[in-house]
Amino acid sequence: MNIEIKKLTPEHVEEYIRFFDTTPHDDLDPASTCYCVSWCSDDHRGMTEYPSREERRSMASEYIKTGKLQGYLAYADGKLAGWCNANTKSECMNCGGWLFTMPEVRKLQGNTEEKVKSIYCFLIAPEMKRKGMAKQLLHYICQDAKKQGFDYVEAYPWKETTDERLFFMGFVDLYKNLGFEIHGETENKFVMRKSLENAQILNHCQG
After folding, report:
1. Spans of all domains in the chain
2. pLDDT band, residue 205 (cuts 50/70/90)
């Protein structure tokens, strides 16, 4: 099987929306389709209620076109089958994800001069789960972040959970296996980091 990874750009808007429309996630209720809009560089401090599904769908389109929603798409034999939301940490600290779902992690904000790429979400098509696609996405992102001049890639997995709705942030072992180390922790989460100082840029991430 051929896996190809591409950075999300405005030309991918329609297939991105379609992927979220048709790929089960969260509680499997279509009304809960998130479109990953809570993790972006928009400012949600004035938000008083969670947007409706149609509002989230529209927001995703707008965020992709304006660069506020960033990440990487994974294709299996040409078909979109995976997604990872990865964005500049310092530009996303006022999004809904940080404000409403990880306020305790937000308090751990350290050296603001460090350039950190944050991993916020994975969505993998059911037929591609447990086939290494998330690992390939994460590896590619680390390589691309190094190329872009980031100092670290950071992730926020739950310490322990059997709730599949929380698997979207990845697993501790996934990050450990790619060289991430525990940088901080809260009661329920680890903050894990990979230093890019000595990371090598592989050929498939150049250009």
Report:
1. 3-205
2. very low
Residue 206 confidence class, pLDDT cut points 50, 70, 90 = very low
Domain 3-205: give its CATH code.
Answer: 3.40.630.30
DSSP single-letter state for residue 45? T
C-alpha span between 121 and 28 (Å, rounded): 16
Are 72 and 123 within 8 A, CB to CB? no
Q: What are phi and psi for residue 110, nearest 5 degrees?
A: -105, -130
Q: Is the pLDDT of residue 204 over 60?
A: no
Kindly report the CA angle at 147 between 143 and 151, in degrees rounded to 5? Answer: 85
* HSE, side-chain direction, 13 A CA sphere, residue 124: 22
Q: Which pTM value belongs to this model?
A: 0.92
Check residue 171 and report its DSSP letter: -
The whole-angstrom separation of Cα 62 and Cα 37 is: 10
Q: Could you tell me the maximum CA-CA distance found in the chain, to the nearest angstrom?
A: 46
Is the four-CA dihedral 116, 153, 59, 94 of positive or negative sign?
negative
d(CA 75, CA 6) in angstroms, rounded, equals 8
How far lies 164's CA from each of 28, 154, 159, 160, 176, in Å? 11, 21, 13, 11, 20
Gap between the Cα atoms of 124 and 127, Å rounded: 8
